[in-house]
Amino acid sequence: MNKEQAKKRIEELNKLTAHYAKKYYDEDDPEISDFEYDMLMLELRNLEKEFPEFVTKESLTQHVGGTVKEGFEKVEHEVPLQSLQDIFDFNELIAFDERVCKTLETKPSYVVETKIDGLSVSLEYKNGEFVRGATRGNGFVGEDITENLKTIKHIPKKLTENIDITVRGEVFIGKTEFEEMNREREENEEPVFANARNAAAGSLRQLDSKIAASRPLDIYIFNVQKSDTIKFTSHYESLEYLKKLGFNVNPVVKPCETITAAIKEIEKIGENRDNLTFGIDGAVIKVDNLAHREILGTNFKTPKWAIAYKYPPEAKETLLKDIICQVGRTGAITPMAILEPVKVAGSTISKTTLHNEDFIKEKDLRIGDRVIIQKAGDVIPEVVRAVTEKRTGNEIIFEMPNRCPVCRSNCNS
């Protein structure tokens, strides 16, 4: 790729990522999967590395996505809530370790944690009392969502010690709770949420705290942002202390003496992710020693002492046996895929919604097709595409019924 081509592609990627980030962070209504977005960001990051003269301050590689929603008070974070650089293979993790070792001139120890798929928040305590909570926003300024956070039962209103401390956590909705919530929404003929992360984010960014209170929100704490009264030597030590204070700390935290041990732990998390009660989209690797972190420092957007390994979405092939239509209480007809049962991300999938006629036409789905199934956000099963190269010619093109499958009245009347 020459310079002119690179400049044009970088401009395209900046526009695309800005649009998708706005839908994801600000509107809680993603248009593409996390994996697709990650691949766009990876392409942009690699191009900017090769052609640094085309890097602009507007690029999402240079700042955190997200803005402050109108109607909320702004909160300036005393300690920025940074994001993490994403990596997708273990060679990149080894390169991260080499950079860390070169700077420290010694072998560091690490902590590996699950990367919870939710909304990052800060919680502020004065004299042990919960006084304020905020979204990450752009990393420097977030939204005051204190009243919404007070509805989450695992956020302690009073700590076991009267200290001043600010912590960071991830608000999420558990897998079972999310499925139940969507099931109820389907029964009430309300739009279902695309994934648990955006359901959690959308619930917290409501001006009416009753909405947050009605949703099954939970939280895991994963970092001490600021403490004037307690000093720690290691990250793992600080997490153990947070448990004593009464916080609901990330349950999957493993100290690792070497990068090799960290890789094994990441693989173990990946193998067991189906058994977790909450959704994850990766594992986080952090330098444990806090003095080492000070030496390593940070970039404008990301710390140099931590990185996120992202797992690819699990996808399986199966048979689209039939397409049937379900009728809701208001008479809306929704096509449903009947599948040859297949296990995806820990659960057996035998049917899933096809949303509407346009969705079927856009995907060119036919009865008898081999199709690829995956779970959006590891929760909702979705038909990704038809495996058209395996068609035999006996597949049947689906057409929406002219008459209601229940009462047989004309659908157009």
Explain briefly what this protein structure is.
The chain is α+β, with helices and mostly antiparallel strands and about 425 residues long. About 30% of the residues lie in helices and about 30% in strands.
Keywords:
Helix Hairpins, 413 residues, alpha+beta, 18 strands, D-amino Acid Aminotransferase, Chain A, domain 1, 5-stranded mixed β-sheet, 11 helices, 3 domains, 5-stranded antiparallel β-sheet, OB fold (Dihydrolipoamide Acetyltransferase, E2P)
Task: Characterise the protein shown here.
With about 425 residues, the chain is α+β, with helices and mostly antiparallel strands. Helices cover about 30% and strands about 30% of the residues. The chain contains eleven helices and 18 strands. A five-stranded mixed β-sheet has the order 2-11-10-3-9. Strand 16 and strand 17 form a beta hairpin.
Count of helices?
A: 11
**Approximate shape:** globular
CATH topology of the largest domain: D-amino Acid Aminotransferase, Chain A, domain 1
Which band does the percent of strand residues land in?
25-35%
Low-confidence stretches: none
Domains (count):
3
